[in-house]
Amino acid sequence: MRIGIDARFYGSVGKGLGRYTEKLIERLEALDTDNDYVVFLRRENFDEYAPKNARFKKILVAYPWYSFSEQFLFPLRLLSFRLDIMHFPHFNVPFLYPKRFVVTIHDLILLHYPTFQSTTHTALFYRIKFAAYRLTIASAIRRARHIITVSHFTEQDILTRYPAARGKISVTYEAADLLCQFLSQDQERMLLDRLGLLREAPAEIRGGNIRDILHPYLLYVGNAYPHKNLEAIVRIAPLFPAYMFVLVGKEDYFYARLKKIAQEQRAQNVIFAGFVNDRGLGTLYRYALCYIFPSFYEGFGLPPLEAMARGLPVLASRTGSLPEILGEAARYFDPHTAGSFGKELAEILSSEAVRMELSVRGHRQIARYSWERMAVETLDLYISSIKNKRRDSA
């Protein structure tokens, strides 16, 4: 059987979606020795993927996400490979692709938060773009042989809006990587000093314990899209002047806007770290007191799960899929109730015992999730979809 995977989001260029696609392909390579795979990538990530299984072949395609060529030219390219099943790991399935496919829908954030603040374009452009999103999602759900999603919360969200999805949705949980990379000791000090987290210059503390001269800080890693609710961090930071609030994420329109808000509110203990590579993140996770995640809506909630994998206690909003995914391993607050965030954060910061207990629970919680299990379940869906196709054709 020949299986296609749209990997144009593969790796770092696709953020969370890229991580999902990368881990799926990585585990399928180790798992499947019977089927042939065609992996479609763009120039930006083509060299990032190197097949380790002879049955996996990568193909370069020059069709940007959400583009005219994606809708009209990409389907023609796919048809030339005579695929038994195609997997689109995102809802942007070409309208003109006529063959059998499965689609992964991670969340319906675009439908829940269709605000003009979420775009840098004109209102007219946004309305056209939003209408195209809605049509594309509805079409993908209606035509898909099977729909994969990453939490029961998102499953119910899809069923509420799209009854046509009933009977063809499966939940395959994502997972958190346990491996954590670290900088050398000197590099750690340079990074922490650059971010203003050291009380003394690196040269003055060579050979000493970094924790002894480190400002205590809380950590957030991710983007600054409006539904992430990072303004809540900016508002609460001045109430905890003894602590730094470190926000890690690539500089973009939304982070630039958040910086301006922080300046207006004189939140001087909010640090915008910008992009930090995996080794640098290992250092920031190592020394942080707590990971904070105030999001209004998440389809899965991978960042706080990854923080748990690195031993951090987690404080998250009680919204979306987060209680399902994080279980009793996190402390929660209501992002819509004034004072809830500050109250829960104060309790965590005031008690080392609470932080230790959350860390232990976090390690137990991440054991529930496995990229290998996700790949096995996804492969089963490929095979059942292909078998059903053949049965339908008989």
Please tell me what the overall shape is.
globular
Low-confidence stretches: 390-394
H-E string:
EHEHEHHEEHHEHEHEHEHEHEHEHEHHH
> Biggest sheet, strands in spatial order?
3-2-1-4-5-6-7
What's the N-to-C terminus distance?
A: 17 Å
Derived structural class? alpha/beta
Number of distinct helices: 16
Estimated radius of gyration: 22 Å
Number of strands: 13
Residue fraction in strands: 5-15%
Largest beta-sheet characterization: 7 strands, parallel
- What level of helicity do the residues show? 40-55%
Mean pLDDT value? 91
Q: What is the topology?
A:
Blueprint: E1 2-6, H1 15-31, E2 36-41, H2 43-46, E3 56-60, H3 68-72, H4 74-79, E4 85-88, E5 101-104, H5 109-112, H6 123-143, E6 146-149, H7 152-161, E7 169-171, H8 185-194, E8 217-221, H9 231-236, E9 244-248, H10 253-264, E10 270-274, H11 278-287, E11 290-293, H12 302-309, E12 314-317, H13 322-326, E13 331-333, H14 340-349, H15 352-366, H16 371-393
Parallel strand pairs: 1-2, 1-4, 2-3, 4-5, 5-6, 6-7, 8-9, 8-11, 9-10, 11-12, 12-13
Which descriptors apply to this entry?
394 residues; alpha/beta; six-stranded parallel beta sheet; 16 helices; 42% helix; globular
Brief overview:
This protein is α/β, with parallel strands linked by helices and 394 residues long.
